[in-house]
Structure formats: structure tokens, C-alpha cells
Design goal:
Shape: globular
Number of domains: 1
Strand content: 15-25%
CATH superfamily: Aldolase class I
Oligomer: single chain
Number of helices: 10
Strand order of the largest sheet: 1-2-3-4-5-6-7-8
Largest sheet: 8 strands, parallel, barrel
Structural class: alpha/beta
CATH architecture: Alpha-Beta Barrel
Order of helices and strands: EHEHEHEHHEHHEHEHEH
Number of strands: 8
Helix content: 40-55%
Distance between the termini: 18 Å
CATH class: Alpha Beta
Bound molecules: phosphoenolpyruvate
Amino acid sequence: MADRIVAANWKMNKLKREVDIFMDQFCKILRDLNYDNLEIVISPPYLYLERVISYRDINSCNFYLGAQDVSSFRGFGAYTGEISSKQLKDVGCKYVIVGHSERRQLLNEDESTVRAKIVSALEAELVPIVCVGETGEERKNGETEKVVSVQLDSVISVAKSNGYNSLVVAYEPVWAIGTGVTPTCEEIEKVHLFIKELLKDALGKEFPVLYGGSVKPENSGSLIEIANVDGFLVGGASLSVKSFIDIVNSVARR
Ligand code: PEP
């Protein structure tokens, strides 16, 4: 795995035609660029995973495929509507986003579900991008580290009991997602250091920690300068080729 990662999370956006327009333009730009030690991840809706990955194979365009979620059920079976980690691996995914705050809040995913999803991802040799982060209320109450450490306990307990190849954590303050507001550089630096140290103490190893929450071309250059920020998880700004490539370029320049 590269030292830096920029991952796009398209969420529930785009139709086939828009996927094709994006991938076409994106691959034309990417083919001419040479990024050293940087992995670019595109996470489309499940339906378009194969469509997106087909561009890499046809255009030798250098990105990795990510899924936005995975079932907490392992293997295969009678789980209507679910998608298993093995199926994601089978269609070419390398990464899977787990524990995104939208799923924690809108779909009531709790820590035990998040843990089961990490287990399932690791079993299929997918790299989980585990999202952690506090709500606005929790930040106001000074609970950021407490909340993040509970969420990281899931990562640590699964990693200890199941083993792992690679893991990525994304620090995504819930109040910064899709709002245009970001924490100050000092606040981000503090939480990233906290996450890095906690994981290192528990697992004896450093893991990439991405920042997510209103990353855009206007702020990505300064955000990537923050110590222990190893890249970004990008929502809204990943929907346009221009803004996503601008963000990728700012990470590549660091
Ligand atoms: C996200 O949902 O993971 C995210 C970071 O969204 P946005 O970039 O739109 O804030």
C-alpha cells in the first residue's frame, strides 16, 4: 500500500451515463500523470463497480476500486439484498469503506456491526477504510478523543483477534461532512496524532490515517501539510473530475 491515499466516495450519486463521462475524462487525465507512492481510489455505488473497473483495464488508468460498504454477514447465504466481501473482491475491489457516519446515523449501524464488517473485509483480503469521528455536540462537550477511541477499539479488537494485512482509518468529524466547514489545522493535527499513537501502542505498527470532511481543491493543499494526514476521503468534491484531480494533485505535490 502506498504512503498516501486519496479516496473518492460517490455515495448514492450518478447514473450510468454520468459514470462513463466521469471515467472517460478521469482516465484521459490520469494516463498522462505519474503519481509516486500515491493510491487513488474510486468508490462508486455497488451497481457501477464493474463499470468503473472496466476503465482501468481498458485504458491502463492507474486507480483502485473501493466499495462504499459491505455486508456484516460472512461468506454467502440467504441474506437478501446484501453484498459480501468475497463478491466485492471478486469484482476487483481493493478497498471498502466501513462505518461511515451516514451509515452509523441513518442506518443505525452500531460498533458490533462495524466490527463484523471489518472482520468480513479482512477475511476477503480487502483493505477496510474505517471511518471514525465525533458529532458537533460531542466536540462541544470535549468528547472527541473519547468517541474516537471507542470507535478505534473496534479496529483494534478485530485486528488483534483476526489478524490483518492492511488497515486504513479515516478521521471524519461528522459535523464537517458535506457542510463546507472543517476543523482548524491544529484540531485535525491533534486528532490524527491521537489516532496514530493509539493504534501504534495497541498494534505496534503505523497505519495510514486519512482526513475526510469538506475537502475541496481550495483547502486540500493546506490540509495535506498537516502532520499525520496521509491523504483524504472525499465526498462531494469527488463527483467532479476537475475538483477531484485538483485534490489528487495537491496530495501528489506534497
Ligand atoms: C464523506 O462523506 O466521506 C465526506 C468526506 O463527504 P464530503 O467530502 O462531502 O464532506
